[in-house]
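sry for the spam today, last one i promise. struct tokens for design, 138 residues
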């Protein structure tokens, strides 16, 4: 009972944190995988053009490319803190530039990804990550 009310993490925290990071990275990678669908990428470019984004086709490729590469890095826990920054920027653009700031209803996923990336920015890759293997000499 004491563990339930304690402010300390449970013993399984490292594993749960890794699963959350890997799942979030996988979902970002899936969103970014759309970069391999030229028809869909053209539609995104048209949508961004309708929203008056500068260089809409480039922005579509940049956003999807960011989701793909940074999502893969997040899954692996490689350069975790560095990769959260472009992901947060991309998701903030989606949430507020494309979604008009409707974060409390409708499509809430982009803002949820921002919040998860804030966690990974401050938490790093964690114990079960390439960052831990490559950079933590304990």
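last one done:
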């Amino acid at each position: 009972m004491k563990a339930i009310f304690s402010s300390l993490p449970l013993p399984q925290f490292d594993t749960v944190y890794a699963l959350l990071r890997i799942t979030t990275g996988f979902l970002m990678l899936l969103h970014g995988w759309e970069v391999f669908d030229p028809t869909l990428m053209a539609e995104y470019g048209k949508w961004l053009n309708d929203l008056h984004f500068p260089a809409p086709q480039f922005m579509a490729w940049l956003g999807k490319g960011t989701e793909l590469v940074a999502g893969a890095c997040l899954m692996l826990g490689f350069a975790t803190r560095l990769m959260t920054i472009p992901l947060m920027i991309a998701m903030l653009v989606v949430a507020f530039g494309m979604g008009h700031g409707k974060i409390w209803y409708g499509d809430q996923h982009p803002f949820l990804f921002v919040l998860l990336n804030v966690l990974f920015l401050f938490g790093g890759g964690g114990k079960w990550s390439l960052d831990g293997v490559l950079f933590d000499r304990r």
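The chain has a mean pLDDT of 92. ok im logging off now
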